[in-house]
């Protein structure tokens, strides 16, 4: 065992929603533990600082995308990017978190040494300096996608003479007034960009390969705003948050259990919003609702832009890009001065950090999730991968709370390691489950790098927040799986268990 103390107790990677949430929980639940946040960018916010395309906004309500401990106070429940950044900035300033953030620091590698019970983390600064930080715990709030490289569908832009943009790298000074824009894609990003650009552009066309299920709701939550007038802020927030959690859960389960009923409901609402402009082929996907995420259209803005003749949706496959636009395989030609490739993200595990354990590289695809926040036989590491069918922050909140309770349990036991132990025999008995029962392209393309998922809890990443919240809060920390010990003792214990199982 090394006699020297690590630099900090908990190193948090990423100053976005996940990282800030963990820091806030530590301030409240583990005030005697030291922590630092390393953030590769020069500003906090993660996704909300990176994406700058027109209209960038949440695609779920801020009463669930907001933190459990900090009420959302804006009138609009569906919030734009700047409002979300304002919310995060206020939290880090009011709670003393900003002084713990080290901007311009990119984590490239992290190795856990069992004997000394510490992580050695390699960081590169924005000016090219390489340094090392030691920590007892590593908390990965680095998101789920590649910040450097979006998904590339392999388009050949050939003779196209206009501008080609990807939403992940939007130029600050783009002038699209009076121009014709084709947005390739049909997901949440495309559905946001099209009506936002339609105000200034001559025409914006969303080119979709297949339709997407959509639903419209007001950007303002009338009940939330009413409750805020008659109840204390925190009470109104808790009621609205739980109402929205239950509505999300009900809608998802209805879609899975009665897909035809959900299809009829969604179709009826779109038909009503568009009136005579409704075209069934454009809005009838070949899959059931929530086989992929259902796209939110706040205040029916996309449908209003279509009815005004400022936007339209075309379904087809690209044949080639020509000088003045896009030629489809059916011969249709879409004029374009600007092409926006809203074709999706490229997933990344652990923020692309080279993680190793006692010098051996960790292949997360060979590890099982433990309670949706840790991994089998990997000590003192936690991660946040939010819900696909609900707001990201719901998981960030319960994971932060859980890990803080693990840290306090370690303190009570005078332990410096906590590891979910999965023996060879126990792993052989597990029934593996599909980690994501979603057909979305970005999910299907990335399954080979994703951690394993078992049918039975706790070796899984659930997609049921209500169940997860209850179990994470009520199940004992010491569940017979999460082992606590000193470095040398746990190494010997794990070796003996594995030998006995073999």
Could you characterize what this model shows?
The protein is α/β, with parallel strands linked by helices and 502 residues long. It folds into two domains: 8-148 and 346-405 and 449-474, FAD/NAD(P)-binding domain (3-Layer(bba) Sandwich), CATH 3.50.50; 163-341, FAD/NAD(P)-binding domain, CATH 3.50.50. Helices cover 32% and strands 21% of the residues. The protein has 14 helices and 23 strands. The strands form six sheets. Strands 1, 2, 3, 4, 5, 6, 17, 18 and 21 form a nine-stranded mixed sheet that branches. Strand 13 (318-322) and strand 14 form a beta hairpin. Helix 1 packs parallel to helix 10, helix 6 packs antiparallel against helix 7 and helix 7 (233-257) crosses helix 8 (259-274). The mean pLDDT is 93.
For this entry, give a set of tags.
about 500 residues, alpha/beta, FAD/NAD(P)-binding domain, nine-stranded mixed β-sheet
């Amino acid at each position: 065992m090394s006699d020297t103390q690590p630099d900090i107790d908990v190193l948090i990677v990423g100053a976005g929603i996940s990282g800030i949430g963990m820091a806030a929980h530590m301030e409240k639940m583990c005030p005697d533990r030291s922590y630092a946040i390393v953030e590769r960018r020069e500003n906090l916010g993660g996704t909300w600082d990176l994406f700058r395309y027109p209209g960038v906004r949440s695609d779920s309500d801020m009463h669930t995308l907001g933190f459990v401990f900090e009420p959302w106070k804006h009138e609009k429940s569906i919030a734009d990017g700047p409002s979300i950044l304002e919310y995060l900035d206020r939290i880090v300033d009011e709670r003393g978190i900003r002084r713990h953030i080290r901007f311009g620091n990119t984590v490239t590698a992290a190795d856990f040494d069992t004997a000394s019970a510490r992580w050695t983390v390699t960081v590169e600064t924005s000016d090219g300096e390489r340094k090392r930080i030691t920590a007892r715990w590593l908390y990965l709030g680095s998101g789920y996608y590649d910040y450097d490289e979006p998904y590339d569908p392999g388009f050949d832009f050939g003779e196209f003479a206009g501008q080609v943009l990807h939403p992940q790298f939007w130029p600050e000074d783009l002038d699209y007034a009076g121009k014709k824009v084709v947005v390739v894609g049909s997901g949440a990003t495309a559905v946001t960009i099209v009506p936002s650009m339609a105000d200034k552009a001559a025409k914006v066309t969303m080119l979709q390969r297949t339709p997407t299920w959509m639903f419209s709701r007001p950007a303002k939550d009338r009940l939330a705003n009413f409750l805020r007038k008659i109840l204390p802020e925190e009470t109104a927030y808790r009621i609205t948050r739980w109402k929205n959690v239950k509505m999300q859960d009900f809608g998802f389960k209805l879609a899975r259990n009665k897909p035809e009923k959900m299809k009829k409901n969604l179709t009826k609402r779109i038909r009503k919003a568009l009136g005579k402009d409704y075209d069934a082929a454009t809005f009838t996907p070949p899959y059931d609702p929530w086989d992929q995420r259902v796209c939110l259209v706040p205040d029916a803005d996309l449908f209003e832009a279509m009815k005004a003749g400022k936007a339209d949706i075309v379904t087809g496959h690209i044949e080639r890009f020509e000088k003045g636009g896009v030629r489809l395989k059916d011969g249709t030609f879409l004029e374009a001065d600007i092409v926006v490739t809203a074709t999706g993200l490229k997933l990344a595990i652990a923020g692309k950090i080279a993680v190793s354990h006692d010098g051996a590289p960790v292949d997360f695809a060979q590890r099982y999730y433990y309670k949706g926040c840790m991994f089998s036989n990997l000590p003192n590491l936690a991660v946040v991968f939010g819900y696909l069918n609900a707001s990201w922050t719901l998981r960030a909140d319960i994971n932060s709370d859980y890990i803080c309770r693990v840290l306090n349990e370690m303190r009570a036991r005078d332990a410096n390691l906590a590891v979910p132990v999965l023996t060879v025999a126990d792993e052989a008995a597990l029934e593996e489950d599909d980690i994501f029962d979603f057909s979305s392209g970005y999910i299907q393309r990335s399954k080979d790098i994703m951690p394993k998922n078992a049918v039975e809890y706790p070796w899984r990443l659930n997609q049921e927040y209500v169940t997860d919240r209850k179990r994470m809060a009520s199940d004992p920390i010491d569940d017979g799986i999460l082992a606590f010990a000193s470095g040398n003792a746990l190494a010997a214990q794990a070796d003996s268990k594995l030998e006995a199982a073999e």
